[in-house]
Specification:
about 300 residues; mainly beta; 9-stranded antiparallel sheet; 2 helices; 18 strands; about 5% helix; about 55% strand; globular
């Protein structure tokens, strides 16, 4: 477990039923630390949320299935949500023939979303109604290098009440930060316009579908410098203040994070490999979990596809 001290698999489930006035929540903090959540389900009244997630920090693999369901309800104010996320931090060092090297980071996803397009929104009092589903991943890099324009004679300028300004040449080192990220799927939101009082359906992103892509980001990074890596991947399904809603976000073929160095190599402080899609062969344990715990969810998704 020492090798995994900088990585975590977390999740949360929540259900609220207006018909029974019951509320129930479950999160990974309630269970022993693990990179396999097992099948987790909670329900109250007509609201139900389920998920299963597992990860391999060494290869950069994260897989999950999340579902949220409410209805039929007496009033459209029932809520169910399921959220799973994988986060890791690491320190990387790159080597090559020169003082810089080309490094490519690949973020892959393969997510099937069902139930978004079938929703019917009904207004209730002055509350908003929202459905969300989809996966997301992101990458961040942080490191410091010597400032080639550093001038020891340069000074900061005091602008009095406007504060102090220090030009770049006063800094011995430059702190570099990079962030890349994206998401699949989208969000429908049935909301009240607070200016006119008129309700409208607002749609962000996409609806039902199969979303798959690999985003590759290439940077010219310094060699023999500690570079802090942050990577996160998440999957979400939420029915918020709905009477009838059934969502499934299946990212069980997803997410893969990889690193490749052109003409060089890298070392990981955690001794991780970050294989990317090279690790995309289903693992026996994962296949067994799917068969044992998620046949019902898979059958539901197939029925939705046939209906479409």
């Amino acid at each position: 477990m020492l090798a995994y001290a900088d990585a975590s698999l977390s999740f949360s489930l929540g259900v609220e039923s207006s018909s029974t006035q019951e509320f129930k929540y479950l999160s990974s903090s309630d269970l022993p630390v693990s990179f396999n959540s097992g099948l987790q389900t909670i329900s109250v009244g007509n609201a139900k949320a389920s998920l299963q997630a597992w990860a391999n920090p060494s290869t950069g693999m994260f897989k999950s299935i999340v579902s949220a369901e409410v209805g039929p309800g007496l009033a459209p104010i029932n809520t169910a949500n399921a959220y799973a996320s994988f986060n890791l931090g690491d320190t990387l060092r790159f080597t090559g023939p020169g003082d810089k090297v080309q490094v490519s980071f690949s973020l892959s996803h393969d997510t099937v979303i069902s139930g978004m397009d079938a929703q019917q929104f009904s207004a209730y009092e002055q509350i908003d109604h929202i459905i969300r589903a989809g996966s997301r991943n992101s990458l961040s890099l942080n490191y410091s290098v010597a400032n080639p324009n550093y001038d020891p004679a340069a000074t900061c300028i005091d602008y009095g009440s406007d504060g102090m300004y220090c030009p770049p040449e006063t800094q011995q080192t430059l702190h570099i930060s990079e962030y890349k990220g994206g998401e699949t799927g989208g969000q429908f939101e049935y909301q009240r316009n607070y200016w006119t009082g008129v309700r409208q359906v607002v749609r962000f992103g996409e609806g039902d579908g199969h979303y798959t892509a690999t985003h590759t980001y290439t940077f010219e990074l310094p060699t023999n410098v500690d570079i802090s890596l942050g990577y996160s991947a998440s999957n979400n399904a939420e029915c918020y203040h709905m009477a009838n809603c059934s969502l499934l976000s299946d990212a069980s073929h997803s997410e893969y994070f990889g690193i490749s160095v052109q003409g060089g190599s890298f070392t990981s402080a955690s001794q991780y490999q970050y294989l990317g899609l090279a690790a995309a062969v289903p693992e026996p344990e994962s296949a067994l979990m799917l068969l044992a715990g998620l046949l019902g969810l898979a059958a539901w998704r197939r029925s939705q596809v046939r209906a479409d």
